Amino acid sequence: MYCNYCDAEFIVAPLSRSVYETPWETEPTEKVFCDENCEEDYLYGGDYSYFTCESCEREICSQNPENGWHIQYRDRGDGTVLCLQCYKKEIKANGVSLETLRQGIIPGMFLNTEELIDEGWEEVSIEYVSEEQNVKNILQKVLTLDKEGYICIIDYERLSICGSEGTITLYKRRK
């Protein structure tokens, strides 16, 4: 058996940790370490840093090379960190955060269009976002729909790596 961090060989793992490589996994992967320093460096300091989802309480890889190093968590804007699976459940249940939109951030994620339609979500509009004004326009639409009794979610269709421009789809569903 070898340490996941330094490759030291040992017979019995002095330390082991159950972690998830993606938010979508149902079974954890066991990581073994020769000491606490290797465990700490591997889980919180390396290329594959892990975080603890504040909803499901699983330790999940922050960015995994198997999905193109896509970030596997979202910060609600208040410091609460959720894995993508829990974030998806949350926005489908409550809609996007109006406060986050007011801050000029478009809260959403890449979603499955067929799944959304099957769950009763209705497409409102497809928007190209690139400037602050676009965010204000989306905020205005979401606020109007909120007053009309809808919650909204945002599906990222095509976004640049840093998320500064691209195409999103706005969906609504009755509260």
Map the helices and strands.
Layout: E1 15-19, E2 29-33, H1 36-44, E3 50-52, E4 59-61, E5 73-75, E6 81-83, H2 84-94, H3 98-102, H4 113-118, E7 122-129, H5 132-147, E8 150-159, E9 166-174
Antiparallel strand pairs: 1-2, 3-4, 5-6, 7-9, 8-9
Please provide a written account of the structure:
With 175 residues, this protein is an alpha+beta fold. It folds into two domains: 1-92, no CATH class; 95-175, no CATH class. Helix content is 27%, strand content 28%. It has five helices and nine strands; from the N terminus they run ββαββββαααβαββ. A three-stranded antiparallel beta sheet has the order 7-9-8. It has a two-stranded antiparallel ribbon with strand order 1-2. The protein has a two-stranded antiparallel sheet with strand order 3-4. A hairpin with a 6-residue loop joins strand 3 (50-52) and strand 4. It starts with 14 loop residues before the first strand and ends with a strand. The mean pLDDT is 89.
The amount of beta strand, in percent, is: 25-35%
Q: Could you say how many structural domains there are in total?
A: 2
Overall helicity: 25-40%
* SS-derived structural category: alpha+beta
Query: How many extended strands?
Result: 9
User: So what's the overall shape?
Assistant: elongated
Point out poorly predicted stretches: none
**Strand numbers in spatial order across the main sheet:** 7-9-8
Distance between the termini: 53 Å
* Average pLDDT level: 89
H/E series: EEHEEEEHHHEHEE
Number of helices, where a helix is a run of at least 4 consecutive DSSP H or I residues: 5
